[in-house]
Each structure stands twice: as structure tokens, then as C-alpha cells.
Amino acid sequence: MIWSRITGTGGYLPEKVLTNHDLEKMVDTSDQWIRERTGIAKRHIAADGQTTCDLAEVAARRALEAAGRSAQDVDLIVVATTTPDKIFPSTACLLQQRLDVHGCAAFDVQAVCTGFIYALGVADKFVRTGSARCALVVGAETFSRIVDWTDRQTCVLFGDGAGAVILEAGDEPGVLSTHMHADGAYETLLHVPFGVSQGYDKVCEHHAYYVEMRGTEVFKMAVNTLGRIVDETLEANGLDRSQIDWLIPHQANIRIIQATARKLGMPMDRVVVTVDEQANTSAASVPLALDTAVRDGRVKRGETLLLEAFGGGFTWGSALVKF
Ligand code: UT7
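# oxa(dethia)-CoA complex -> structure
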């Protein structure tokens, strides 16, 4: 039986930092409100001209180095992003060009903040079926480009960044299971209301290129769906919640993270939290959190990790990983 295993992780955050105090000068908000309601203290913002592919490239090279692989070993590239450099080619193809890789399949996956879980799930299936042996899986976003910086209800929440993993074929269990869900009926809870197929003129006319969110409803939906997916993941693997070593959640709001940890009966010192330093980086948040905890020595080989995320769509998903 072929398994896929994470053999290296990488991450990248742009240099520019925007603190809550900086935001106090931009919109009617306060450091206290943002910390209390979300747990966020600061976020990183891409420089002018710095694109999603720029961030993805650094994260990808770091993941390759950690895995002891060269770009030439890669035979599949999957990039999860909501903020591609271009409408086409895909950011995965642009990344492939940067890495000087030729010929292997490369494509983007769009599931907003659940994107990395979807990308990992798809890549895992390629590896398990023998269609790839060394996959590069990336979550990368410049979400700051689609945030309305005059809307205090959304602009305080997001940041930019990229995270990546190398997923390799092997005999030992690695990715134990992945679970992906969506319910398109909840489209308007969290969306950018216009897109290219409605015509550029309409987008410009309505200034409708920014994230719109019904925050309280998203919050409730997130807590409910994450609770359900935790049960589904444990049940699918015949595991008890005490057998999970680390929870690596999507970093949207500390209160949502705490609710999922409570559901798992996990103390917060077994939960990887980066939302305070990085805010919500959408598809990048789970691989960035994983990379942070691997590099600072918290997550060790052989441990069992529960990765989970939710986002626009509405989408939600999880992955159980033997690291
Ligand atoms: O990856 C998925 C991305 N999205 C999410 O995960 C978002 C999930 N939702 C949330 O995290 C929370 O709902 C928010 C953080 C967005 C909002 O927190 P909340 O506790 O649900 O606050 P609220 O929307 O009920 O607003 C409470 C008050 C309101 O004022 P009034 O009506 O009580 O006078 C808001 O106008 O807080 C006000 N408010 C703010 N005040 C200061 C909303 N945003 C801000 C702000 N600064 N940035």
C-alpha cells in the first residue's frame, strides 16, 4: 500500500507588519477590541508589486530544502489560493516556471480558507494512486489585495503569507485521512460579490472587488462545522480524541480555535496558534501554522496532527496526519 507523507515544510511572511495600532489610524477600531474579539495583534502585508507567487516561491523553496529535495524531484504542483497573480495561467503554473520544473501537472485549487486542506486531499490521492511520488502543495495568499481597508468589520482580520509542504510516497502511514465538505447554499456569508465573468466594467462600477462577510453567522457556522468534522475524522480513523498530539487549526479567530480545542478536550498548549502574529492568511494559515510548530520544535516526527479549516463557499475540511 502506498501512503503519502509530509517530508518537509516551509513558510514565508512578507516583511511589512501592520499592527492593531496602525489600524487605529486607518479605521474606527482599537487594539483592545481586535485582541479581545479575535486574538489578533498584527499581520504581515505584501509589499507593492509582491504577488502571491512571490510568497509561494519562498515557502516552496524552504519546504524543498527541509525535505532534502530539489525542484527537479517534484512531479505535481498544487497551489491553494483565492488571490492568484493572474486569471490565467494558474499560480501553480507560474510557480512551476519559477522553479524551472517542466512537464508535471500543476493546477490551482480554490476553496478559500479551506484551500490548503483541499489541496492536500487532492495531492494525497495522486500519491496514493501512484500518479505522483513527490508533490509540492502550497497555500498562498495576498488577501490584503481584496480587503476594503475602510471597512473595520473585515480589514482587521486578514494578512498575507504562504505555507508549503512536500508530500512523498512511502510505505509508512503519513496522511491518514482527509475530509472535504462544501455547502454552496451559504455563498453570501463570506464572498467577493463580483468576478470576471460578470464583466470588468460591473466590478469597477460597483467597486465590488472586496471581501464581504456576515461575521457572526460565519462564526457560528465555523464552530458547528468544525465540531462535526472533528467527530468525523476521529471516527474514520477509529481514534479517541486523547490520541491527537496537536491541533493545527485555521487561524481566523482565537475564540473559534478555543471552541474546537474544547470540543477535542485539548489544552491550549497542544494547539498551534499563530493568529496573534499573522492574522487570517486564508489558504496559507494551516501550512504556516504547521511550519511554525515544526521549525520551533513543538511538532515532532511520529506525532499525530489534526489539521482543520473552514471558509467561503461555505467550505470546511480536515486532515489527520502522522507526521
Ligand atoms: O476564514 C473565515 C474568515 N472569517 C471568520 O472567521 C470570521 C468569523 N467571525 C468573527 O471572527 C467575528 O464575528 C468578528 C471578529 C468578525 C466580529 O466579532 P463579533 O463578536 O461577532 O462582533 P459583532 O460583529 O457582533 O460586532 C460587535 C460590535 C458592533 O458594534 P455594536 O453594533 O455592538 O455597536 C460592531 O459594529 O463591534 C463593532 N465592531 C468593531 N468595533 C471596533 C465590528 N468590527 C469592529 C472593529 N473595531 N474592527
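# post-check
The two ends are 18 Å apart (CA to CA).
The chain has a mean pLDDT of 96.
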